[in-house]
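Here we describe the complex-level prediction in full. Unlike the single-chain runs in Section 2.1, the two entities below were treated as one system.
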Amino acid sequence: MKPKHQRLTLALLGLGAVVAAALLAMSALKDQAAFFYAPSDVVKNGLPLNRDVRLGGMVAARSVKRAPDGVTVRFTVTDGQATTPVMFAGIVPDLFREGSGVVAEGRFRPDGSFVASNLLAKHDEKYMPPEMAGKMHETKTLKQ
Amino acid sequence: MPALHAFANPARFLKVARPLTPVLIWLGVALALIGCWAGLTLTPPDYLQGETVRILYIHVPAAWLGMGGWSGIAISSVAMLVWRHPLAAIAARAIAPAGATFAALCLLTGAIWGRPTWGTWWQWDGRLTSMLLLFFVYCAYIALARADADRGGDGRLPAVFGIAGSVLLPVIRYSVVWWNTLHQGPSIGLTSSTIDRSILWPLPILLAGATLFFAGVVLMRMRMLLARAKSEARMRRMARP
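The structure predicted for the assembly as a whole is:
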């Protein structure tokens, strides 16, 4: 084996080891590195009470109710398997709409509802001109 | 890689690099300008985001080169360690600041894009955080490679770092698949794209333009680093009693 081939083998082995280590670390991080909880995670793992968490999912169709005070808005977040009612008082982002993705920052209440202190809109990876949107738009922002 | 052995002689490399540099840079600038013009005037707005979507014509090429730059550093590092190619270490050092600039541009345009669409400049989600890490790793590489060169090192340490850092590339790519993130999933795959054709078409022009520009800047920096090494060697010879 020429020294050159020895070095090549070493470099490839090193690269493989580093990638394998990273993949192991990433899969171990799978739950901790999640940016938000989905409603079904909460059903599965229990309510994270008394700490700030993020709740993400789709705003359920026909669930947005605006209170007469003009700032309070109630809606349901769904991930297709479970739903969580959310209350938020404040200005919602422009892209906040029914059937679209949302990430709410706030706390759970013991009854399972969620009080948001901030709302973030989450859009999907599809981009298209407005005239096409009516024909083929179906949001699948949340992966299952 | 026998073809590259021809360039083991820096003089032969410079003979090709010198005329190639302005060609790459100006062709890249021209394509980028055409792409920007097309992206700003000829494409329709997005159904959801409206005109804001146009920042993708800057954001995507910046992300592409931020990650492509590190791929270049990793390949050069392997060539340096395995084949001891004399230009490989120079190439990796030449790429680093250019790649870091595009990574920073990606983070900046992402923040500017995130504010109107998501409602936030910055969130610690998997994609944003891993891209920020790549930027920091670029900065560390630049410092390490310079310190190594200043102390007359053989460039082996930065090369190992360059290979180890490439771990971040799949993490960035698949962060939006592995974890739930605020950033949307991948739009562009190898064979298909979820961006409608009418919005997508200027993007390849911009990707090509930015890549040519990047290559031109790297050649320019390689010539600079070679010239500096030459002048330093001459100074040392003259300083000898």
